[in-house]
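Feature request disguised as a bug: please show the residue count (122) next to Putative membrane protein insertion efficiency factor in the output. Example input:
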Amino acid sequence: MCDAPDCGHSAPRLAYKGRNWHGPFRKTPGRLFGMGLIRLYQLTLSGFIGNSCRHLPTCSEYGYEAVARHGLWRGGFMTLFRVMRCGPGGTHGFDPVPEALENRLRWWAPWRLWRVSKAERG
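Example output, currently without the count:
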């Protein structure tokens, strides 16, 4: 290492940020459980399945953020439907998790979450 200020070695190191969402969310037991399951999948099974997701963010990243933002029930259904859309003949491209859900998307009607995507949000 050199001691000169312009040698490039004294630059501060950037903090490592994982691939999952780091925004604020309520840390309820359901959300933490769901996010823990998704993270367990990412660390174990994801390496065996391979990088075959056709969306950005990947389905597991989408699930992690959906559960963190919208809770285990709604976020879990959003993740399930996203994984189903990712299969053969499904959608592809950039599909972020919505920041807020519409009023018509009630907790007792999870089938309405099927098409929560960029196309429907306008």
